[in-house]
Each structure stands twice: as structure tokens, then as C-alpha cells.
User: Fold this.
Amino acid sequence: MGSNRLERVAQDPFAEAQSRAASEGRPLGIGLSSYFPLEIFDAFGLAGIRMPPRPMDGYPLGDGILQTFACTVVRSMCETFLRRDLPVGLVGATSGCDALTTVPGILDAAIPTLPVVTFRLPVGVESDAAGRHAAVVLEDLCREVQAILGRPIDAAALDAAILGREAVRVRLDGLFAGLPSRDVQASRVYAAAIAAQVMDVESFLAAFDEAFSASVSSAGSEGIPVLLSGELVPSVQWIRDLEQMGASVVSDDTNTGSREAGRRVRAEEPNRLKAIADSLVHRPVHSPERFVSGRPRGVAGRARAAGAKAAILLHYKFCDPSAFEAPSLVAALREVGIPSVLLEVDRQTTLTGGDRTRVQTLLESLP
Amino acid sequence: MIKLRANKRLQTTIRNQVLWTRLGSRIGRPVAWVTSGSPVEMVLAAGFIPFYPENHAAICSARGMALGMAEQTEALGYSRDLCSYFRVDVGSQISGNTPLGRLVPPDVVLVSNNICGTVQNWFRVTAERFNVPLLFLDTPFNDAAPTENDVAYVRDQLVHIAAELSRLGIRTVTEKRLGAVVERSRSALGLWAEVLDMAAEHPAPFTSFDAFVHMAPIVSMRGTRRCISYYRQLRDEVKQRASAGVSSVPDERARVVWDNIAIWPAHKQLKKLFENYHVSLVADTYTSAWTIENLDPSDPFSSLARVYTDIILNHGAAHRVKVLSNMIKKFGAGGFVLHSNRSCKRYSLGQFGVKTALTAETGAAGVVIEADMADPRSVSFDNLQQRLVPFFEVLGANG
Assistant:
């Protein structure tokens, strides 16, 4: 464990975010959703990261501003900002599920000095109108950021950020696409994806090339091939726990993984903001928080093509989009002969005893 | 307590609306199931008869039928943490149980996410269950007023939806036809606003407990002549009560405003509790959501786009503070009750901050109460009472 830089970062991404801010001497731009384009933070001179997963025993401060029937992801965000132990330059929220949509207002009331901007990305993403509107609201967002930071967007930095972030996504996407071959253990792939959320682009690419170069031997996985579907992977250990139980993720459907890694920014589009907006609206695989048709069947089809024999549905308690989708996703998986088990995650970052029993039963019961 | 004469007409009106849905479907009128924040004017202009699952879920809950229905939905694999209106509605679809007789299945489903993200998932389930087209109106969430770009985006979608409804319905949605429906909506909304505003009188002749019940037609029938007729009568009756100094709550001693949906499983008990403590619930953010202004029959698409994007639940906490603050001043309230509703994250998350800001701004006392709009398992009247009675004491109201 922790055998390379990416795995060490993934072990404690929160610590990486803190040390990065200290070493780079510039404040963090923290994106709260995989739909917030970190390229924008980079282009404004902030150190762009996703809000890092952080194990917490409870939310003593956050519970004072947010009810307990919000998911742990959102509660953890509020707790982190209230603890003030990350040097925050700007927080970037994105319209989406009800909880995430309300977060900026909650933070604004609780911490008036915390600068928060909202990227009002359309929820319905299948129409041409949505694509046009996404570009417009991204321009609005940049104007708002400029007003807050007191400096304009740096066009050259934006170009560099687009190229750099794209390189990160392409590499990660390659790893996730390669999961069915099982040449690389899935936990290493997820470690890279989690590390990418908090590392600066150059360091990540260097660490990635070192970790996954042909000369570095990698034990593949022999486990039962499974689909993993959910919003955020709680930790690398969570994946390792699955692997230790004999499961091998061959198909990913998570925001941590392939959903975000699959996004592509068109190089030929001269309007760079429009290119970013398009990449979000036309993301090949959306989260269930967006209004798209046929998602469950698409997930099931990809799982089948990857050779999955079972599915693990990672469901955060109080996550409405996942909870609404779960029955239809289970049904779609059944249709292609893939049985599934739903694991409800709250604060835990490793599999609970109950989770282990359900996974074990599922895996043992397979013919 | 002197009951409103309109109570009786309300029952008849709702029953007739459901009967009309059944009759209409027999003579070839298509039925559209719509969310409460959908631009119903569009479906009416296309000749559809609208039906509101949210209203229906509220009625099921108020009549004590919610639990069994919710459990049936949960048995399908839907989490108990999901919206109880959704669980009641789907349970009703599965079981066929309803206090309103047989429900007519939809020919089309129209949903807008201006009230929450839940409905887009809920109505997808409905559309798939009945295998009918699902029309979705995406209304950008905004802390401030909608931008011109927001309005243009929503208007584009409305034009598309109008084309779809024209194709699926019995009439083409023209600007003129839509304008006529918008005009009727505007009249009904104005009358409803007049009714609610009369609670500013001292003593209040009408409270939110009345409004929670009498809102049904403005939700489900706005845009029709029957709706106008209904609210004209209600307005006149409440006006008479106001002129005569009739108080909805005997010996009114305190006035409070309410945030969020009613607590249907405890509606009658809560109403009684407020009466016993001589507290008038004079206004609320829920029923006043249908006091939309600025509908313009001469420019129906743009004005519908603007108005339906600008409703309270499509804004953040700062806007809620502003609305409640204005309400407290306008209605002379000394306190406010925030219903933290487990079923409605969009409406509830952020209320702790709203409470602090509202008290700072108005000096009014506030309390947060935990409950659910429809699931009786998440409602404890004893707990509500334990929160409310000391709050009433602070307001100087006691039994």
C-alpha cells in the first residue's frame, strides 16, 4: 500500500490539498461537484481541486447549519469549511441535486466571508438549448469570478489548463477503459483518480507516468468481475476491501472515475469556454443528478460488455438521484443477467460488516 | 370556530375536477399529469385535462392513507428517505387506492424542476410506468431574479413543449389560445392573493391552516373559469368575515408565519393546538407561491418563462429570508415557524441559517420543527407540541 506517489496521495487527499496550498503559496479553488470545470480555477491562478474526501466521525459544526437528512458528502463539505483548515480562495458549486444546489446559500449565511460561486449548468442536458445556455452561464461565472478575485481570466493559462486537465482525463479514461482486461488492479486505478482530484496537473502526470509505465510491474486482478456504480468512491480502501473479498471492478460508473474522465474538450472549438461547457453537457456518461434518458440501460450495457458478473451499487444515504435510480438500475442489470447489491454509505470509508456480508453473499451465490 | 362556507364547495370542486377528468377522458380529452410548478397553462391550451399527483398525495395523507401507499413503493426498492409525496403517489398507482375514486392514467407527463430535483425523477418513474411521453422544463436555479438568458433558455423549451403538446393534444397551442388561458390564470392568482392578503387584518379572518386546504384549486385548476368562480366566492366570504371582525382563531393573541409544506398527518391536531393557544398562522411561503404576479397574456411564452423560473423554491436561502421578512412585516407577525421537512430537501436545507438571519433582520422569534409533509412515521405530534408550546409562551400566547 502507498507504493507510489499516487497511492500515497489517495491515502489522504485532504492532507495533499493542505500541503499543496502551502507549497504553492496560492489559495485553493475548490470544486464541489464533478460538473465544476477546474480549468476555470487554474485560469484564474488558483490551485484547482475537487473537495477531497475526508473521514469524519461526526459533523459537530456542520450540524449547526445543515439538517441531518443531507448526504454525508454535503455535510462533510459544510463541516470542512466551518473548520477553516483549508486555505480557500474560492468555492465553486454547480446546480444539480437539491442538496448541492442549496449549499451556496447555506454557506453564504453561515460564513459570509467565504467566496462561493455557482455554475448554473442546466440540469436537462440533452437539448441544443442546454448546450447554448451552458456556454452562456459559464461566461457569467467567469465574470463573477473576475469580480471576486479582482483580476481577469488568463487566456494562456486557460489554454494550458484545458490541455493539462484533458491529458489527466485521457490517462484516467484509458485506465478505466482498460479495467476489463484486468491488467491493472482496480484499486490502483481508483487511487490515481482520487489523487487527480487534488494534485496539480504536472505532478500528477509525472507520477502517473512513473506509476503506470511499462517497466513498472503490476499485479492484475483475479477476482470476480463486477460493475461499480455510484457517485463518489469513499476511499481507495473501500475498493481494496472489495478486492480482498474477491471482487474485481471491471466496469466503472462513478463520478470519481469514468464519468468525469470521459469528458472531452474539443480542441477545434475556438471559443474555449464554449468548448468546456460542451464537454460538460455532452459528457458521455452523466450522473443521475442530470436529466438524461436511458442511463440505467446504458450502464447495464457497458457492464455486460465489460464482462461483469455482478454489480455493486454504492449509494450515499440521502442521495436522492441515486435512490430514485436504484430500482431501475437494478432492473436493467437483471435484464442483462447481472445481479446486484446496494451498499448504503454514510460516514464510513471502508466496508462495514453488513456490507461485507452482502457482498460475500452475492459473490458466493454466483453460478 | 365558525367554519368557512367555502369548505363545502371545496369538496365538491375537487370531486368534480376528478369526475371531469374521468368524463373528459371518455369523450376523448387527453389527460396530463403535471407538477405543481409546471406551466399548466400550456396543457390547458392544448386541450388536456391536468391532474396533480402532488395534490393527490396531500389528500391521501390528510385522509390517513399515506402509510400503506408509501410502504408499497418502498417494497419496489425505493428508499424511505425519498419524498413522501412520491412514495404515496406511486403506491396509489400500484394499488389503485385513492380517496377520489378511480384516477385516469396520463397521456403525457409534464414536469419542471423549478420546485425541486425530486419531481424530475418522480415523473420519469410515472412516465415509464404508463409508457407515455415525458416533457421536461429545465428552469435554472438562481439566487437573484432570472437573467434574460435564463428567460430565453426557458422560453425556447416552452416553444418546444408547446409543439409537443399540440401534437399530442387536441388543439394547437397558439399564442392567442395560450394568452387566453394565461389571462384566466392571472385572474385566479389575483383572487387567491386577495384572499391570502386578508389575513393581514387584525384579527385574521383566514389563516394558513385554511389556506393549506383552499389552495387545491389554485394548484390544480388555475387557468380555468371554475377556478376564478371558486376564488371569487372565497374572497367575498373572507372579506365579509374581515368586515365583521370575525377571527379565525378565538381571542387572537399572537401571529406567526410558516415556512414549508403543511404537515398533513398532523394537520388537524396542529390547527387545534394553534387555536388552543390563540395563535394565528397568518401567512406562509407555501400557499403564497401561487400568488404569481406579472403574467402577461399578450406575451404568454416569455411571461410564463419568467414567472415559472422566478418562483420561491427556485431561489436560495437569501431569497427565502427576504420573502419571510416581508411577510412578517406585512402580516404583523411576531414569530415564525420553519418546518424542516424530511421529504423536501430543496425547501428545508438551509433553514437554520434562515432562522438566524430572519431573527436578526426582523427581531421576530423563530422555531424549527422537524416533521414530514406526508409520512406519518416521521411525524410526532408530541414532539411538535414540545417545540411549539414553549415557542408560543415566548410569543406571549398561552392556553
Chain A touches chain B through 46 residues (CB under 8 Å). The CA atoms of residues 110 and 191 of chain A lie 33 Å apart. The first strand of chain A starts at residue 28 and ends at 31.
